[in-house]
Amino acid sequence: MSLIVGGGMAEGRSESLRRQQAHLAAELRSADKTWVEAAEVFQMRFRLNPRVAFRSVRGWSQTQAAEEWNRRWPDEPKTFKSFSYWEIWPGKGGYSPSHDNLVRLAEIYECSVADLLADLPSFRHLDSAAGATLAVPRGTTSTLAGEIMVPSEAETLLRDLLGRRPGAEATVSPQAVATGLYRLPEEVDFGELAQVIVMWMQRIPHYPARRDMLGKLAAALVAATAAPLTDLAEQATATPAQDLGRFDPATLAHCEAMMPNLRKQGDVLGASATLPSALAYRRIAEQQARAAANGTQRDRAMATYAELTQLTGWLCFNMGDYGSAQRFYDDARAAAHEARAVELVTYILCTMSHLATWQGKPRVGIDHAVAAAAWADQSGSPYARAYAADVAVRALTADGQADRSRDALDREYAALQAALTDQGPRQSWWYFYDESFFWSTSAQNALRFHGADQVLVAADKALRLSDQGNLHERSFRLLFRAEAFGRQQNLGLACQTITEVVELTSVNSTRRIEQRVQELRRSLDPWKRTRAVRELDQAIRAYRSTPVG
């Protein structure tokens, strides 16, 4: 049976999710967790806002919640639509519950009114007496826009980068501020930093103020991310010449440990800010591979070099340098084969398929996807099988092969379920791949073969399940929504969504994101005199050095 977004298999997955939630709720309550504590777990685990979490943790549908309301207050009945509006709010299409309704919801769910509003922004930072600390309500989770968790370490880092540490001189240069941050790629939780960047942008209402803040941040990040190269150069200078060619397990382990942070740094801060560090660590890994004496050491060092080379190619890809990306990918694949790293070979072939498809060469993308699938079967990794199917979907979709792309979607979903239940270790490069990625690819497929409604269903699921710290993936998923709104000629929502992407990527925009924004903006040319498109153009001018369109 082919998987069609919104069809029977999607309903089956919804039923599976309800069973998971019911099982987790039972476990939490049996462990004597309060409804508030259990709802907080639901917010984190299932990425729900608090109003949805308090209902879901009881296993109620919106209709059942309305029935409970009507049992208590029959003279003021509500339907499921009321609960839907309250739960969507403060998003588009939602309505805020009145004070009296909030009190009654709190009574039904046995919580406080504040618990129900934990996802709303706090403006305590506007108080001049608040100092450096931004307080946020307990239970705030990192989910949809407006539901940002603010870790104190990331908040401090952002203030450092902006030169806003309490007591710091306003004239301190970004380079001076970054002096103490020379280990940025090694120590920062970039997911948390992304959440804080988004929060600050949401709280600064005017374009000029945002542009000023983002300009300072970008300058500081350039200085901070370049510092590791200076550190490495000084270390090499201080090392005796006879020791430079020796294999050092600790050095190789350091390169391996850096990989996840470098990938996340690229997702949050962008390719150009990450590429210098990636190249530096790649050179170190190459030295270690040459110096390694025995087979085990050499295979490990070659695999590390291959992964860093693939990452370098990925950064070049996002910067729009497709020729360099291809060369790095070819080098990475050869090194991974030499290291006999089968799962890594699969991953590299998948990224080569993605590159070819993006360049308008879907047949080449299909070839790479087929090769990736063969190696994935040898690897035994369900993540490898799932992602090989994913890139096949995208290549087949771009080639106009509807039936084969749906078959590949089915294979991807089956492999994904195996991956999500697999208890074995997972390679770090799969950090980005989860159910949200499947729904994102489903949205791409629906854009080619189905209507806008199915695109929105898939894109909304992808966004709801997304890691909000991955600004790169979130931006592309928002652009799928924007394209669907455009097809519906819903200009307001299309322009608002594109504007959100322009804002999100003010710090870390890549050539590929810029290309998609430009394409979508050109598609709106017939309506360029409307208020919605004029406001979009204003946002683009405010956040970009050159207008798009």
UniProtKB/TrEMBL annotation:
CDD domains assigned: HTH_XRE (cd00093)
HTH cro/C1-type domain: residues covered: 92-116
PROSITE patterns: HTH_CROC1
Name this polypeptide is given: HTH cro/C1-type domain-containing protein
Organism listed in the record: Salinispora arenicola
